[in-house]
């Protein structure tokens, strides 16, 4: 009889737990949670964790705070797993609350510390404080190191990330995994030629450990070599891969386009299409930029049409390349018509590409149509090339007063004063908040 009662209780409890786990909304989860409380159904950590997971999934801060108060009343604040799950919710929804909770936690495990590192190291948060938390950890696992390296990557401090990786390799008993290696290779790629030596070292580590050259590792290596300009090594890794996805092909195409090998980039793209791999938006950005660099007007138009043929809408960077390659061919009026007919609102990147083409053909009159428009969009600290380009165009048009006006705007920002490059590559193909290249 006792066993039957216990069996019924377990089945009943499991049904409540399953309901919490499958709750379709945070309000539904809280409703079930409250109903269990009213019916005196005993709670355990699994029920609370299910509820937290459900509420976190829906990104509802008031519900999380309400649940937090229930957790305190039920006396589960000393449970490190529940507290860490709650901390993760606050990291996602309210980092200030996360900091307060972390300081009050009586017990912490390595996941707790890692959660705070990830919170601090997210773009827009405090990488210095993330490092302080990292250094305070009583013990670290591979996630700790990876999170810290990812944090440095987020803020563009790739050198510090590489130094940390070296420290992990030589001073800690932590085994490198694919995630960490991928983060380091990503940093190496963004450092260009400077990062190539470190990238080769990571590649050597992979070979030494006899890692399988799967898609993830292969993509990371091809991308690193391509961005660093070592296309031969990138192509060798690419050929060795037994399986390739769109990232593999696109990394090779981007690298070739970025370093001036336009014909090679287009050849790789054609092979990609023949192989049956469907290109993505970044693939077309690389292909169109290769056409723009090489002045391949007709080819560029054909590839631009292929974007819609592949079920995608042209993005800003696609229009920018099209405007430039049409303008570079001398068809400035047509390039201007493309801008006016765009489905998207033209931005600094598109208008900058048009101005760059106008400069090449010394057509100040055409450029004057959009100069004021682009100056209202440009920010000295972000769009230094635009200001240099506008100055060059005003000099071309003998508008010396306008040159002085724009230069005064430039002098307000130290970074702008020290920059001179206003080429198409800097204006259109540089990393920009509105591009994916």
TrEMBL record:
Q: Please give one Gene Ontology molecular function term for this protein.
A: RNA binding
Would the keyword Nucleotidyltransferase be found if you checked this record's keyword annotation?
A: no
GO biological process terms held by the UniProt record: RNA modification
Entries under Pfam families matching the protein: PPR, PPR_2
Q: Which InterPro entries match?
A: PPR_At4g14850-like_plant, PPR_rpt, TPR-like_helical_dom_sf
Arranged from A to Z, the UniProt key words for this protein are: Repeat
| Organism superkingdom | Eukaryota
Keyword Amino-acid biosynthesis assigned: no
Q: Where are the PPR repeats?
A: 109-144, 245-279, 280-314
UniProt-listed PANTHER family = PENTATRICOPEPTIDE REPEAT-CONTAINING PROTEIN
Q: What is this protein identified as? A: Putative tetratricopeptide-like helical domain-containing protein
């Amino acid at each position: 009889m006792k066993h039957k009662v216990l069996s019924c209780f377990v089945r009943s409890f499991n049904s409540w737990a399953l309901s919490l786990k499958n709750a379709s909304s945070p309000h539904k989860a809280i409703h079930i949670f409250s109903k269990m409380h009213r019916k005196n159904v005993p709670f355990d950590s699994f029920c609370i964790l299910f509820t937290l997971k459900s509420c976190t999934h829906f990104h509802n801060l008031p519900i999380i705070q309400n649940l937090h108060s229930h957790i305190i009343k039920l006396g589960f604040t000393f449970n490190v797993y529940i507290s860490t799950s709650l901390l993760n919710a606050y990291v996602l929804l309210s980092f200030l609350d996360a900091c307060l909770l972390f300081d009050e936690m009586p017990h912490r495990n390595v996941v707790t510390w890692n959660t705070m590192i990830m919170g601090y190291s997210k773009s827009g948060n405090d990488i210095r404080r993330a490092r302080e938390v990292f250094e305070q950890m009583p013990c670290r696992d591979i996630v700790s190191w990876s999170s810290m390296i990812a944090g440095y990557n987020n803020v563009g401090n790739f050198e510090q990330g590489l130094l940390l990786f070296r420290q992990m390799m030589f001073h800690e008993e932590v085994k490198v995994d694919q995630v960490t290696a991928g983060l380091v290779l990503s940093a190496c790629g963004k450092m260009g030629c400077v990062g190539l030596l470190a990238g080769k070292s990571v590649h050597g580590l992979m070979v030494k450990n006899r890692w399988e050259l799967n898609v993830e590792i292969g993509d990371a290596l091809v991308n690193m070599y391509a961005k660093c300009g070592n296309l031969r090594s990138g192509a060798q890794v690419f050929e060795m891969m037994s399986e390739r996805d769109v990232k593999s092909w696109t990394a090779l195409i981007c690298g070739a386009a970025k370093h001036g090998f336009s014909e090679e980039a287009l050849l790789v793209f054609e092979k990609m299409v023949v192989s049956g791999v469907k290109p993505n938006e970044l693939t077309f950005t690389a292909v169109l930029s290769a056409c723009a660099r090489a002045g391949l007007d007709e080819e560029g138009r054909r590839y631009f049409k292929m974007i819609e043929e592949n079920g995608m809408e042209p993005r800003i960077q696609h229009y920018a390349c099209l405007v430039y390659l049409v303008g570079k061919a001398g068809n400035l009026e047509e390039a201007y018509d493309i801008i006016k007919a765009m489905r998207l609102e033209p931005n600094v990147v598109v208008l900058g590409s048009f101005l760059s083409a106008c400069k090449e053909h010394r057509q100040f009159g055409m450029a004057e149509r959009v100069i004021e428009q682009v100056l209202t969009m440009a920010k000295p600290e972000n769009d230094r090339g635009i200001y240099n380009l506008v100055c060059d165009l005003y000099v071309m048009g003998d508008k010396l007063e306008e040159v002085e006006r724009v230069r005064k705007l430039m002098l307000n920002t130290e970074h702008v004063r020290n920059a001179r490059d206003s080429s198409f590559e800097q204006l259109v193909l540089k990393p920009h908040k509105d591009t994916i290249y």
